[in-house]
Amino acid sequence: MVEKPVHILYFAWLRERVGVAEETVVLPDEVRCVGDLISWLQRRGDGYARAFADTAPVRCAVNQTFADFSAAVAPGDEVAFFPPVTGG
Amino acid sequence: MARVAVQEATFDVSKEIAGLYAGRGDIGGIGCFVGIVREYAEGRRLEAMTLEHYPAMTHTAIARIAAEAEQRWNLLGCTVIHRVGRLRPGEPIVLVLAAAAHRVAALEATAFLIDWLKTKAPFWKKETYADGGEAWVEARASDEASALRWVKQSQAEPTAG
Q1: Which domains are present in chain A?
Q2: Which member of B60, B82, B158 has the closest CB to residue A87?
C-alpha cells in the first residue's frame, strides 16, 4: 500500500463545521480523486459529516487551482474546500 | 506588471492613482472602482464584515488575472488592493485601478477585474450584525452572470462562485 499524505485546508463555514483550518491526513489508496476524498471525509467525524452533508455548495482547489470533484489527488497535494467565493 | 496587494490596512485612493500616472505621458485615463462596506445588509444593520482568504492562492490568482487584463486591454498600469480581516461599515474594502491610453479600455478592464474578483478570487465574507447575529455571505447568481460577459468561448474553466 502506498502512503498518500495530503494537506487539506477548509475555509469559511466548512472550516467552522470541520473544526480545524487545516490538517495533513494519510489517505488510503482507493482515494483517487477529490470526490473520493469527500466521501472519505464524510466518515471521519460529526463535524465533517455536517460540513459535507450537502456538497452542492462545496467548491475545491487542488494545489491552489480551482478544480472539479473529478480532479486527481496525489501524494503531497494541497486540497482546499470552501463555499462559493464572495470577495470584491 | 500590476501592483497587487492583499492586506488588513486601509489604502489611500488618491495616492494609488497618483502613483500610477506620475511621470507618464502615455496614460490617457484611469478607471477606478472602490468597494465600500455598506451599513445595511438586506435590512439588518451591520456591526462588521470579516474577510477570510486563502493566502497561498489569493495573490497569485489576482496577479494572474491582472496580467490577463493588462494584455487584453493593453493597460499601461494596473492596481488591485483587497483588504482582509475585520472591517466596519463605511470602510473601503477593495480598490481596482486600470490605466490605459483611452477611456474604453480603462473602464472595461476595471469592470472585468472587479467582476472577476467577485466570482473567482478566494475570499469569503462573514457579516456580524448589530443585533449580535452573524452569517456567511452567499454568492449571488447576478455576480456570476456579470462575470460571464467577459468569458470568451475558449476560456471556460471550473467555477469558484
Answers
A1: 4-82 (3.10.20.30)
A2: B82
pLDDT digits (tens, 9 = 90+) for A35-47: 999 999 999 999 9
Which residues of B are less than 8 Å from A66 in CB distance? 120, 157-160
Q: What is the pLDDT of residues B77-113, one digit of tens each?
A: 999 999 999 999 999 999 999 999 999 999 999 999 9
Tell me the three cell numbers of residue B149: 460577459
Of B61, B114, B126, the CB nearest to A88: B114
DSSP assignment string, chain B:
--EEEEESS---HHHHHHHHHTT-SS--EEEEEEEE--SEETTEEEEEEEEEE-HHHHHHHHHHHHHHHHHHTT-SEEEEEEE-EEE-TT-EEEEEEEEESSHHHHHHHHHHHHHHHHHHS-EEEEEEETTS-EEEPPP-HHHHHHHHTT--GGG------
Is B70 within a domain? yes
Question: Rounded mean pLDDT of A9-23?
Answer: 98
Domain count of chain B?
Answer: 1
Question: Does the distance separating the beta carbons of A13 and B121 come in below 8 Å?
Answer: no
